[in-house]
Design goal:
With 217 residues, the chain is of the alpha/beta class. It starts with a strand and ends with a helix.
């Protein structure tokens, strides 16, 4: 097969795993990464376009592929400015979905968050929920909104709150059974592999909860 894919957020933890896996996957002949910085790697089937992701809509002409992976996301600690946070976590995925619709790209996978809810009174889950609703409204044939719990893996930047949370999760995870399974931490590589699986298999559209993500791969 001669497939092509677009990745947004390839310098992040999960996005980097998506990139690594697709570079190894012989079914893909072209990977297009839109990034604000260079990746520091070279590959025959990799093209990196340096741009402002907050203005990704300006890249419509180059935004051409069979499928799109959106691995963009911040935290309220990392981005305390609520407008900027919303521009990233709402604006970029919605703009990507809009480009998919305009360019007839029929598959998009986006990392959302556990607890996303447009009706929430809390800013973070509300923003994620509103993003999900807006993306689904485009009616793209294959739309997957993954809702992982805390994402595990070695990040380049140090997030103290997340580090402490991961330690706590490692202690209590063995006791998280039944419905609590949803709240167990999940490896970034597992999420990446699930996104790729969804793009290459039949699955119902919409939200994919954390415990389902684990079962896909």
């Amino acid at each position: 097969m001669n497939k092509s894919a677009i990745i947004l957020g390839a310098t992040g933890l999960t996005g980097n795993f998506v990139l690594e896996e697709l570079l190894k996957n012989e079914e893909y002949s072209k990977l297009l990464v839109f990034s604000r910085i260079e990746l520091g790697i070279k590959h025959d089937k990799l093209e990196v376009i340096i741009c402002d992701l907050l203005k990704i809509e300006e890249q419509q002409e180059k935004f051409q592929a069979n499928e799109v992976y959106v691995c963009i996301g911040s935290t309220t600690n990392k981005t305390p400015n609520k407008k900027l946070y919303r521009d990233i976590d709402f604006g970029i995925p919605v703009a990507a979905a809009k480009l998919c619709k305009a360019n007839n790209i029929k598959c998009i996978s986006i990392i959302s968050s556990l607890g996303a809810n447009a009706r929430s009174t809390v800013f973070y889950p509300k923003t994620k929920g509103e993003m999900e609703n807006e993306v689904m409204a485009f009616g793209i044939e294959k739309t997957y909104l993954l809702r992982p719990s805390m994402i595990l893996g070695a990040r380049q930047e140090n997030r103290l709150g997340e580090s402490l949370g991961k330690i706590l999760l490692s202690i209590i995870s063995p006791f998280m059974l039944g419905k609590l399974t949803r709240y167990k931490g999940i490896e970034a590589k597992t999420i990446a592999n699930a996104m790729i699986w969804l793009s290459n298999n039949d699955h119902s559209n919409g939200t994919i909860e954390s415990e389902i993500i684990r079962k896909l791969v």
